[in-house]
Amino acid sequence: MIAQLSRATPVLVQGIAGRMGRAHAALMRAYGTNIVAGVAARGDVAGVAARGEVAGVAARGDTAQIAGIPVFADCAAAVAATGAVASVALTPPAETLAAARDAFAAGIRLLVTVAEGVPVHDALCIGQAARAAGAVWVGASTPGLAIPGELKLGFLPDVALRPGPLGVMSKSGTLSYEVGWRLARAGLGQSLWVGVGGDPVKGVRFADLLPTFLADARTRAIVLVGEIGGTEEEDCAAAYAALGAAKPLFALIAGREAKEGVAMGHAGALVHGSSGTLAEKTRRLEAAGAFVFSTIEALVQRCVADFGVQTGG
Amino acid sequence: MLLIEADGKALFAEAGIRVPVGRLVREPALPADLGPGPFIVKAQLPAGGRGKAGLVRCCATQGDVAAALPALLGATHKGHPVAACLIEEPAAGTEQYLALMTDAASYGVRLIYHPQGGVDVEAAGTLAGTLCAPDPAAIDAAIAATIPDPMVAETARALGRLLLERELTLAEINPLFVGPEVCVAGDAKVVIDLNALPRQPRLAALIAARPDAYADAARKLASGFDYVEIDPGGSIGLLTTGAGLSMMLIDELVARGARPLNFCDIRTSMLRGSPARIVAALRWMTARPSLRVVLVNIFAGITDLGEFAALLADAIAQSPGLRVPVVARLVGRGAEAARQVLAERAPDVAVEDDLPAALARVAAAVAA
What we know:
With 313 residues, chain A is α/β, with parallel strands linked by helices.
């Protein structure tokens, strides 16, 4: 589903009446994303209108609008009226499970949930619901994904987005912004950028994205921005080796100096015992043929050395 | 977040899992009504590897306990100070391994049982275990298929219900002492989900009761953002947003031989026009006499840096304890406005847009 995304893909925004929802619906549309619908409780829309918080809120007949985007009471109504196939849920963490169930029940094929702080046991339920529906879930705790120059689902910063040959996947938002921005400044952009998020239980994982990057003609190398905790980097290493290491994989992993037993900001960035350590992730990735860097600059220089000249920006 | 053993065992006992008779002490003096022994004295802190670090002592007599307590209390292991010790009567039986944990790949629960426990199987990730759905019936079925001993199976069912009801991500017993009549949890490794705390008042109460053992989590609950002290003798205070970038910054600083004091994910999008978070972070940093410089590093994707700079200037004005240089590396939306705000309101702040240049300024401030 991620590989088929384009400027034409009809997208809806769940939680569009909230502060985040209104702001990011407008920013995504400005980037080029085809936002066709919003979902919000009727009371939320009325509240926005009554407080006069944004221009262009109107309730005309049965269909309210926020900034010209028709707003529906649930995903089923939004999908029926607009044909949306992807959704970005800009809902608070405690409401994300309900939003996901609403989306999958309505037939949404790709769901991005950005909220940070979704409880792990809720994430288990979202994951099971996605599998049962045969849908793709990206998140939680993610800035979303983008195909630079085409669309973005979420809020990856425009300043770091640039079309180019690198497939980027990252647990951390900010660390990927820094990496993407420095690469973009050096003239190297991205074919597809997916924030998988910093939670321990999530939707799409690093290993799940490898086949997409390997099959995508625009992607010439893969940049993995990982961090301590969990086994995603290790699982990705195994998948990479099994898929024949067909494109270079450059990895940066944060958290060498993390404190054991404490989640470092991200709920998933937790080391206890020998599980989830940077040393183990590095060892497995290198054994699979990936290149692991210990500084942002070293990764950027290697990417520029290998791909900078040929693409010429 | 990992709980200390005593709190893990408190949850076990509430779930009907038998734990050794024990008591938690916070002072080095021998408790007056202690029995004759023998005892096991265990340092309480939320990190593994205590046995190998000498933080678990077998004490044959009260005299041995009296010698062990002052040695353990006040020790530090993996960045965690030992604020309490658990004095327990030793349990008897064969040592087994039992754990239940959430499984990210299957969206389920993994049950791991091994009839030989002990410290050698602490690398639980190397044990495959049995996967099942995250509901009581599926867990019970997995237990029935995996654990032949009815007494151990009963303990496992209680552990499974605890995992679901308290929304744990790991509940491990290693060793589980299995005797002829009872089985007893010799240790407790319990990882809780801080994101579930709003609906887990029992767990929130555990953390609130021990601000010394869970200083980082208590700070997060009180302030709403992450501030983790990495090195109490560190010289570089970090005022940063974003977990991954903050971690990477710490790694790169340490690799250069510098000593960052803390990890910080202040979450600029949640400041909501108040400098309170920045003031709190500066207060924690300046409480450490080793502080030499504060590095502000904000990559603003969405945040307006002009607004952030005004809050930073407010916070600096409200922080009389701040007597060290501040270097601010600001990049992204509104960076130019931020430079102007700081030039007017906090002209001593050195502003950079390039991270290596900011790090050079930090190194110079530490060396000065």
